[in-house]
Amino acid sequence: xxxxxxxxxAIDRARDELFSHIRRCGxxxxxxEQRSEWFxxxxxxxxxxxPELTPDExxxxxxxxxxxxxxxxxxxxxxxxxxxxxxxxxxxxSVEAPVEVAVATVDEPATAEVAVEVAEEEVxxxxxxxxx
Length: 132
Prior knowledge:
The protein folds into two domains: 3-76; 95-132, no CATH class. It has a three-stranded antiparallel sheet, with no helix packed on it. It contains four helices and three strands; from the N terminus they run ααααβββ. It has helices spanning 10-25, 32-49, 55-69, 84-87; strands at residues 99-101, 111-118, 122-130. By secondary structure, the protein is an alpha+beta fold. The chain is globular, with a radius of gyration of 25 Å.
C-alpha cells in the first residue's frame, strides 16, 4: 500500500518498474537502434509481468519511457556556428536579446516590466508582473 492508503494499480507499478530498469540498464547512453531494441524487449517483458495491461497502456508506457530517455535539449543544436571564412557562406550571427527590468522603490507598488528585444530594436514580447 502506498502513502495515504493509495494502492498503485498495474500501470503505475509497470511505469515505476520501467523507470527503474531505464536507470539501472544504461539505456540512456545507448544508441538509438540499441535503445529501440531494448524498449521492444522491456515492453514485452512488462506485458508478460503485468497481463492486465491493455495494448494501449503498453504503448503509453513505451512512449513515456522513450520521452524520458530523449534529451530535453539537443546538444547538436548548441554547437557553435563555424565562422564564415571556414564555410564559404555567411555565418548566422548569434544575438543575445537585452532584457530591461524596472524595479519599484519602497514608495511605489511592486511591479516589474520586462521587454525582450531582438536585432534592430524591435520589441518581441512585453509583459508586466504585479505583486499583490
